[in-house]
Amino acid sequence: YSVVEIDMEENNMTGKISNALVLLQSLNALVLRRNSLTGVIPADTVAAMPSLRILSLQRNRLSGPIPDNLRDNGALDTLQIHGNAFTGEFPLSYCPGRATIFRYLTLDCSVNACDPSCCYAENCIDAVYE
User: Fold this and answer.
1) The pLDDT value given to residue 126
2) Exposed / middle / buried, residue 51 (Cβ in 10 Å: 0-12, 13-18, 19+)
3) Sheet strands (E) in the chain
4) Above 60 in pLDDT, residue 115?
5) pTM value surpassing 0.85
6) Pick from 65, 43, 46, 57: which is nearest to 111 by CA?
């Protein structure tokens, strides 16, 4: 058996996202939104998960810069990170050409600047959360 999806939305989770997730090599969706997770996104862990397509971390208490290597796994196409306390700009490495490489992306553009040639209004979720 393989775990292909973890959906722990609104489970009052606290603490950091575990690096042990890397052991779930068949995982294609990690949904941890609307909890109280802290710390940074474990970028090397995410990058080493070859099947992970969906990373949904919105509305937690995550902080630090938005990692620029999340797509190193070659599969991640959905990144939802708005409603956290990330610092700095959205990495331009995710924006070859004129659009983001993510099929679906949400972030706080008023906090984490995103070059207009990369992010569009529909990518920006500022102050109003679903």
Assistant:
1) 60
2) middle
3) 5-7, 14-15, 29-31, 36-39, 54-56, 61-65, 78-80, 85-87, 104-106
4) yes
5) yes
6) 65
